[in-house]
Amino acid sequence: MTTLAEFETLCGKVRNWGRWGADDQRGTLNLIDRASLRRGLAAVETGEALSLSMPLQLKGPQDGSGIPGRINPVRTMLGINTPMGPDPAAAYSDDIVVMPLQAATHWDALSHVSWRGRMYHDVAADAVSVAGAARLAIDTFGPVVTRGILLDVARLEGADRLPGGFEVTAAHLDACARDAGIEVRPGDIALVRTGHIQLFHAGDIHGYHTPTPGLGIDTAAWFHEHGVAAAATDTIAFELLPARCPELVLPLHVLCLVMMGMPQGQNFDFEELSRACAADGRYTFLFEATPLPFRCGTGGPINPVAVR
Amino acid sequence: MTTLAEFETLCGKVRNWGRWGADDQRGTLNLIDRASLRRGLAAVETGEALSLSMPLQLKGPQDGSGIPGRINPVRTMLGINTPMGPDPAAAYSDDIVVMPLQAATHWDALSHVSWRGRMYHDVAADAVSVAGAARLAIDTFGPVVTRGILLDVARLEGADRLPGGFEVTAAHLDACARDAGIEVRPGDIALVRTGHIQLFHAGDIHGYHTPTPGLGIDTAAWFHEHGVAAAATDTIAFELLPARCPELVLPLHVLCLVMMGMPQGQNFDFEELSRACAADGRYTFLFEATPLPFRCGTGGPINPVAVR
Amino acid sequence: MTTLAEFETLCGKVRNWGRWGADDQRGTLNLIDRASLRRGLAAVETGEALSLSMPLQLKGPQDGSGIPGRINPVRTMLGINTPMGPDPAAAYSDDIVVMPLQAATHWDALSHVSWRGRMYHDVAADAVSVAGAARLAIDTFGPVVTRGILLDVARLEGADRLPGGFEVTAAHLDACARDAGIEVRPGDIALVRTGHIQLFHAGDIHGYHTPTPGLGIDTAAWFHEHGVAAAATDTIAFELLPARCPELVLPLHVLCLVMMGMPQGQNFDFEELSRACAADGRYTFLFEATPLPFRCGTGGPINPVAVR
Amino acid sequence: MTTLAEFETLCGKVRNWGRWGADDQRGTLNLIDRASLRRGLAAVETGEALSLSMPLQLKGPQDGSGIPGRINPVRTMLGINTPMGPDPAAAYSDDIVVMPLQAATHWDALSHVSWRGRMYHDVAADAVSVAGAARLAIDTFGPVVTRGILLDVARLEGADRLPGGFEVTAAHLDACARDAGIEVRPGDIALVRTGHIQLFHAGDIHGYHTPTPGLGIDTAAWFHEHGVAAAATDTIAFELLPARCPELVLPLHVLCLVMMGMPQGQNFDFEELSRACAADGRYTFLFEATPLPFRCGTGGPINPVAVR
Predict the structure, then answer these.
(1) SS3 A255
(2) pLDDT per residue over C240-277, tens digit each?
(3) Which member of C79, C101, C139, D231 has the greatest number of CB atoms within 10 A?
(4) In chain A, what are the domain boundaries?
(5) Chain A contacts of B49, Cβ < 8 Å?
(6) Averaged pLDDT in 10-residue chunks for chain B of 308 residues
(7) CA B133 to CA B124: how far, in whole Å?
(8) How confident is the model at residue C1, as a pLDDT?
């Protein structure tokens, strides 16, 4: 268990406010540089490209028990073989969707969370209004392309999937990296696999929601020390749920998004990637996950890709 | 002007039905292979990554004059610094959007268009129903990562932007490739710049819509011969609008999507890329544009990235 | 149990096709006339006006187990005390909603159901397309104002609410009318109370869905013989669910909507009305339930009102 | 022209705060009583019922030039003759809509406008949040049934329609009532016709928006003195646009909604009603316009009905 005082100490330890200049909105994404991209390019061997996204569909993970209004995508048709002109020979089909930006696989923007009225970089929380995020919005990310590394904690533990309530610690991340022969470097993006998404695949939406395995509070410092540019998991909440911090529902959200300015990814699917990495022992790859550039959005749907 | 008979002849010339097996749904994306990806990786020098997307916002290009119901994205908030738990110190913001899948920068899925009741690969048009595309949907694309090439026709013509009604021909594409020193190879993705998006940037939505410069009908054969995996333009309709084919509104859509099975990209923004390529004379790059995997979707929003 | 043959016989018995002229789209709503309205006006004594609608909210009856895409209303804000002009003294708030037309209290339009490819009045089912109902749409209803009668079957049975699976028969309707001293006349609208909505009020959405008490198949002939202009219940499906007709999921829907052209109302709330009627023994009233005039809509949300 | 000081004086003159008790949320709707309803019932002679609503459709009055995000209704299909069960003989069609609550014919809720941080009855403006209106929401209206009166200013002026910029004054309302032989009484609802909606019918959306004829600032006192329960016009803004008050965009909104607590109706269509009233000289009727009960909504769509 982590007390509020301990949490506050951690906040101070990982805080990046001011690190990248007065106008910074990109946080640890600033760590992505030519070197980290080069590492990503150099990691490609077979050229295999894998999508790490959930499908976008009505049967997604949003069963109504989470954030009010976070529904699954409702996609309907604007045209179904509708004639393009007077001659019906040529026809078009077209669709429209209603969807929360964080319904399925997505990045949290840095404006997604505030703590005591402040967001990352000491931006006032009221920069988010009915019009969305005037600062720290998802469209400030720009291209997200760098080296990705898979930290397969389920595999480390010899489990198909980690059980609900399993706390992934900095020690686990170290062990995964060591076993995979990876030296984690600034600008890398860390993909932390728990296998928990198997419950979603099996149709157990309730089980997928909670309790979940997930990142524990000490991983914030680990990400900080290694200069990780962003991190993602195959769970709905990124971090351990319920958290081991009596006074906070999602302490790691505050540490990562508000203090470090580090984007979090949720609902990633690492199952196929895990099998591929295990098969040839290569756990690094070129990783691309540029969000749709919603003006003022506090999150962004993605279809992340690992190129091996 | 192209007659219907000439058009039908062209259809036969570029048709790829059956080329990639009985169950194929990916068309020319099958041409992306290890070699094309390698070319893309090899093209990276500076590591500069550029987004080629329009922003997603209420002030987009859909002014209601196009396909009925194709509105601009309406993004609203589900939470605005809403307390996460009993203690309001930690708070979240969250949003939801209504948007056509083809509202801004996107790929057309192969199910987007039918011709005489058939889609690509002779799939019956009624595979698209109220439930969407049971075949040839956007989620069959998978990762789209390969070499991209910029064919900067506006620059070739010495124009800031090509005027409305300017037909881009195969000869223009050849000239662009030659001038840039590019040998177009199977699996490349061709980005054809007209500069027309400048009208959108200037707020002239009506002018952006029509008339547009765009790809002429003979470019289909050019794409076919060079094994281009997909093509995209910086206009709303991809092809010349109005087309020079009295009996067809969008003939190139039929040729590319239905006959070749070649994805088309629209509303790409090549302005920054054009400047970068012109500055150092390098017109090839690693290109990534994996669509959000909407189940049964007939199109998919993307944030395409060029890594130079 | 009703066999398919018996069902087909019933169809022939209640069919109104052609009864109101070649171009009719309003079915039994044609029975509303000056006399029925007069009866409604004459029934008003105390002037008490009661709403019979469910609230429209995220916590509605659509839990995802019904028709795919029938979600609960998601209402979000377009403005929250947003300044109207340069001076922020005057400010506006404004909202937008995503909602199925049949999410809560509503009328089914006559185009909602087809049987063997035909709708009411022998209109071809394909009059409903991606653009909606070209014929028999909800906006053809026009004003719905006439005498309403409450047939309180739960009260007749001495029950707070009828249990799931309870079939309301023509005999029950006769008994309710007799006990209430009502002579049912052409143009009346019949409100049939089961009390089942109490499960919704208690938060038991699943129980509210199925099994339900509801109108049995023989009530179609009763409505037909009495010239009822429309009928409504306080359940999600109007009719008994599951139905006692092995080959049909919703046989009464076919009889009422397709054969008779009689609008059905669902998810009405009669609890307060029932108490008021029981208190003074008056079961007739002026009834108003004009749907929002959605062009081409197959259903229409309403806030029905009884004026006593 | 009205100065800010004059406006403030008017505010004090018409203010109803506290008039109907400490918990009041219904403002002047409280004036609807048995007597006003009786007047409405007594006004019915022929039994003719007329809808006063615009159709709800994609081609509505919201062209994007007004409040950001106020789009026209986008209605799409969830089912198109989709089989109900294993046997496809019975099939359903179903639809879903995205629409602003104030897109077409509607009531403004009392929470729609605030003035210097306060809403009607001194409720703090921050009762409206991302969750909507915790107080003064549209679902507090309940049934709206009373006597309606048509004040046909266009007819008074001998015009088909009043020109843009025409200010309807208290004197006009008096003259209309006098000519029609109406004694305006507490609880009546006033429908003020300008004929301006003819521009909408003619497809001139821009002209429909602005400039409009409309209610001038002195009508607030007129409504107040006569105890009008609500008022509506056949324009988009209810009041004169642009207003003659240099410092305020919509001064009558503040007077009616915030000070008086009087609901305003917009985009009503009085054309058919005007012809009917002129034909037999009867300008009073039973009026019903109960909004859909959106929880926390700041406005509500309606299909108002006049029964003559």
Answers:
(1) helix
(2) 999 998 889 999 999 999 999 999 999 999 999 999 99
(3) C101
(4) 4-65+101-307
(5) 37, 142-143, 145
(6) 94 98 97 98 97 97 93 98 91 98 98 98 98 98 98 98 98 98 98 98 96 97 98 97 91 98 98 98 98 98 98
(7) 11
(8) 86
CA distance C129 to chain A (A): 8
Tokens of C194: 């089961």
What ipTM was assigned to the predicted interfaces of this complex? 0.97
Containing B226, the helix (H) or strand (E) segment is helix B219-226
Q: B94 - beta bridge partners?
A: B79
Q: How far is C233 from chain D (nearest CA, A)?
A: 18
Q: What's the token pair of residue A46?
A: 């077979």
pLDDT in the model for residue D1: 86
Alpha-carbon gap, residue B298 to D145, rounded angstroms: 47
Q: What superfamily does domain D4-65+101-307 belong to in CATH? A: Putative cyclase (3.50.30.50)
**Of B50, B54, B108, B107, which Cα lies nearest the Cα of B285?**
B50
Q: Is the CB of residue B214 less than 8 Å from the CB of residue B239?
A: yes
Q: Cβ of C77 and B74 within 8 Å?
A: no
Nearest CB to A85; choose among B70, B85, B249? B249
Inter-chain Cβ pairs, chain A and chain B, closer than 8 A: 285
Q: Which residues of B touch C114 (CB under 8 A)?
A: none
> Which DSSP state fits B52?
-
Q: How far apart are CA D102 and CA D90, in angstroms?
A: 36
Q: Which helix (H) or strand (E) holds A266?
A: strand A264-266
Inform me whether the pLDDT recorded for A167 exceeds 90.
yes
Q: How far is B308 from chain D (nearest CA, A)?
A: 38
Mutation target vs A (from D82, D95, D130, D294; most A CBs, 10 A cutoff):
D130
Neighbours of C182 (CB within 10 A): 19
Residue D292, both tokens: 């859909």
pLDDT higher than 90, residue C123 = yes
User: What's the token pair of residue A10?
Assistant: 């951690």
Chain A interface disruption, residue of C57, C59, C65, C71, most A CBs within 10 A: C71
Contacts of D64 in chain B (CB under 8 A): 58, 63-64
- Taking contacts as CB-CB distances below 8 angstroms, the residues of chain A near D77 are 76-77
Going by C-alpha positions, the residue among A298, B194, C68 that lies closest to residue D80 is C68
Whole-angstrom distance, CA of residue B69 vs CA of residue B75: 16
Q: Report how far residue B301's alpha carbon sits from residue B103's, in angstroms, rounded to the nearest whole number.
A: 8
Label residue B87 left, alpha or beta by phi (over 0 means left) and psi (-120 to 50 means alpha): beta
Query: How far is D34 from chain B, CA to nearest CA, in Å?
Result: 41
Contact yes or no for B61/B205 (Cβ under 8 A): yes
Nearest-angstrom CA–CA distance, B248 and B235: 19
Q: Give the Å distances, CA to CA, from D152 to A154, B138, D106, D179, D180.
A: 75, 55, 20, 10, 9
Q: How confident is the model at residue C304 (pLDDT cuts 50, 70, 90)?
A: very high
Please compute the mean of the pLDDT values over residues A77-100 and round it to a whole number.
95
Subunits with 3+ Cβ pairs within 8 Å of C are A, B, D
Residues 6 or more apart in contact with residue B124 via CB below 8 angstroms: B117, B118
Rounded (10°) angle between helices B170-180 and B219-226: 50
Minimal-distance CA residue of chain B relative to A57: B295
pLDDT at D56 over 90: yes
**Residue in D closest to C294 by C-alpha:** D56
CB atoms A77 and C129 under 8 Å: no
Report the pLDDT value the prediction gives residue B1, as an integer from 0 to 100.
86
CB contact under 8 A, A74 and C79: no
CA distances from D105 to C288, D62, D209, D289 (A): 18, 12, 14, 10
CB-based contact B77 C77, cutoff 8 Å = yes
Q: Would you state the structure tokens that stand for residue D12, as one six-digit string?
A: 């004090």
Backbone angles phi, psi at A155, to 5 degrees: -65, -40
